[in-house]
Amino acid sequence: MECCGLSSLMGEGSELEKNPSCTVSLAIRNANLKDIKALTDVLTLSFHPSGGWLSFLQPILRLGVSEDLRLRLRGAVPYYCCLVAVETTKTPSETKEKVIGTVEITLKSGFNCHYLYISNLAVLETHRRKGVAKKLLKECERIASQWGYNSLNLHVLENNYAAKKLYLSNGYQICENEILWPNWFWVRSEKLFLKKKI
């Protein structure tokens, strides 16, 4: 989708810095079954980072994420799409592809209506704040228009300030504030329902 030597996609000491004949491009495409391992890595690292006293649960979380993805990708459900952001690094001797982000868009049912819902927007920490999430959101807008819908909806935790800033700066508006029941640590949190007209 977008190509050229984009050093902004790479981190410090990247291949591009080491090798000036290297080019880096970013493409957004539909996910397939071959992407499941890489998608599991992105989602697990983004939503369930390892470390701490719950790290022993990591393999179970990874298995659950992987199987959920496999079911959704095999499901052939109309109005469902999982997108991946793929970074391609080309040198004279080789080409490497790496999944660095993902998002899912699906049709949900509400009170007497159907609406498109975005979930699982995640970008590897090393590639955040470089426009990857914005490109994934833009592709969701293109898909929504293609499917004949003029709005997108999503949830974000009220205390996820980086995600909230991303959505608000891309035209999403807060429609509803939902209070979540206290979790097992008895911490009350709030979830915001956001909508964007496209």
TrEMBL record:
The protein's name in its UniProt record: Histone acetyltransferase HPA2 and related acetyltransferases
- Residues forming the N-acetyltransferase domain are 26-198
CDD domains the UniProt entry points to: NAT_SF
Query: Which organism's genome codes for this protein?
Result: Crocosphaera watsonii WH 0005
Query: Which InterPro entries does this chain map to?
Result: Acyl_CoA_acyltransferase, GNAT_dom
Q: Which UniProt keywords apply?
A: Transferase
Keyword Transferase in the entry? The reply is yes
Specify whether Transferase is a keyword of the entry: yes
Q: Which GO terms describe its molecular function?
A: acyltransferase activity, transferring groups other than amino-acyl groups
